[in-house]
Design a protein that fits this description.
This protein is of the alpha+beta class and 311 residues long. It has eleven helices and ten strands. The chain folds into two domains: 5-88 and 100-174, NADH Oxidase (3-Layer(aba) Sandwich), CATH 3.40.109; 193-307, no CATH class. Helices cover 30% and strands 13% of the residues. The longest helix is centred in the middle third of the chain and has 19 residues, at 105-123. The radius of gyration is 20 Å and the shape is globular. It holds the Pfam family QueG_DUF1730.
């Protein structure tokens, strides 16, 4: 098939919608000039903590042409994960980040992106490309912003005007010329709710998050003991944290997702604080069989649960 770039773009976006993606945008595969100095400063200031992988492949993070030969376009997709019902029901119960309620998003999005790439091969022809879901040094939010899918808020999450920020992000980097979308404006205005609400002061300034101070970092990425100076500040979050997104006014537009794989395991919604404290390997394996929570292992989850208990 030999069509103009805008028609290829229309075909791909229509297929992305058919596959269940909520939004799809395109950016030209160029060097991320604006992000380069910000990333360098962030790393120099040690804001990645023990996430040493963030310091690797600096050049590849900023230039998709180093990941896919002769790359011309970056297709970014968003998949909503906002749940029908938040867990738990009680304010003082232990909490999981909403993104971890159901099946690990890496599996779900990667399968959909593979289907989209297969469609491109079938309909358009011999197109070189790769699918990415946190699987390589790709700056997801920067590409989503370039593709016009939203802006990066003061909490550094992507915000979409129509549905807020509870999205997973994935990319196809292709050697196919497509019609790029333009970026949109920043609509955070003078709002500082996310900055004011962060209990560990991880948002050190508008649009700058010190990852080494974030509750998500402490409960997922940190392998050592959690520092005592943040005890009592976790607001019962035992895996991840949604505070900065929960207080964002744009999330009043969030709507429940349409992806059954993201629904919580039936036993998850029935767990009480006592159940969490007494959780066994068997229960952990059953509830989190295909969940992102497996990253922290039972030992890590129990550490986080214990850290949230009063001394």
């Amino acid at each position: 098939m030999n069509l103009p770039a805008y028609q290829y773009t229309q075909l791909i976006k229509a297929k992305a919608t058919e596959l269940g993606f909520d939004f799809c945008g395109v950016a030209k595969a160029d060097f991320l000039e604006d992000e380069a100095p910000r990333l360098e400063t962030w790393l120099k200031n040690g804001m990645h903590g023990q996430m040493n992988y963030m310091a690797n492949h600096f050049d590849k993070r900023l230039d998709p042409r180093l990941l896919v030969d002769d790359a011309k376009s970056v297709i970014t997709v968003l998949l909503n994960y906002y749940p029908e019902q938040k867990l738990p029901d009680e304010k003082d119960d232990l909490k999981l980040s909403k993104y971890a309620y159901g099946t690990d998003y890496h599996f779900v999005i990667k399968d959909k992106l593979k289907d989209l790439l297969a469609y491109i091969h079938d309909e358009i022809g011999d197109v070189g490309g790769r699918a990415f879901v946190d699987s390589a040094p790709v700056m997801d939010k920067a590409w989503a912003k370039r593709a016009g899918l939203g802006w990066v808020g003061k909490h550094t999450n992507l915000i979409n005007r129509e549905m807020g920020s509870f999205f997973f992000i994935g990319e196809l980097i292709l050697d196919l010329e497509l019609e790029p979308d333009g970026p949109i404006a920043d609509y955070c205005g003078t709002c500082t709710r996310c900055i004011d609400a962060c209990p560990t002061d991880a948002i050190v300034g508008p649009y700058v998050v010190d990852g080494s101070k974030c509750i998500s970092y402490f409960t997922i990425e940190l392998k050592d003991a959690i520092p005592e100076d943040v005890r009592g500040k976790f607001d019962n979050w035992m895996f991840g944290c949604d505070i900065c997104q929960d207080v964002c006014p744009w999330n009043r537009f969030a709507r429940p997702h349409q992806t059954p794989a993201f629904d919580p395991h039936p036993e998850l919604s029935a767990m009480t604080n006592t159940d969490w404290v007494d959780i066994t390997e068997e229960v952990f394996r059953e509830i989190f069989r295909r969940s992102a929570v497996k990253r922290t292992k039972l030992e890590g989850l129990k550490r986080n649960i214990a850290f949230n208990q009063p001394k």
